[in-house]
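The data layer described in this paper is built around a simple, fixed record for each protein. We quote a single record here, exactly as it is kept in our systems:
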Amino acid sequence: MPLDDGPYAFQATLPNLTRSSHHRCLKRHGISCLPEIAGDKPTKQPFKRYPIGYFHIDIAEVRTDEGKLHLFVAVDRTSKFAFAQLHPAANVQAAADFLKAVIEAVPYRSIR
């Protein structure tokens, strides 16, 4: 039963029961959350290691007062360097301009 349903369910017998006092009572008795079950959650695996200069690039639609814009984002997975630009359209020309701007903005050069 959700925490919010407890005070409502016990209202006839415990009229002064509040949500917070109900939670404290459950916590005091060790039953405030469901028990952990082995295999219930997937195991977290670390991110794959990439060489510096490997960028993750993404595009998102952003709504503003002026209308719809497209957010272009590039994040280096190793150094966490991030670069972002807003464009009025998500087309080939905007993508090419964004990639050129990323190359100019990167504070390091690839060894290759």
The chain has a mean pLDDT of 86. The radius of gyration is 26 Å. The first strand starts at residue 55 and ends at 64. The beta strands are 55-64, 67-76, 82-87.
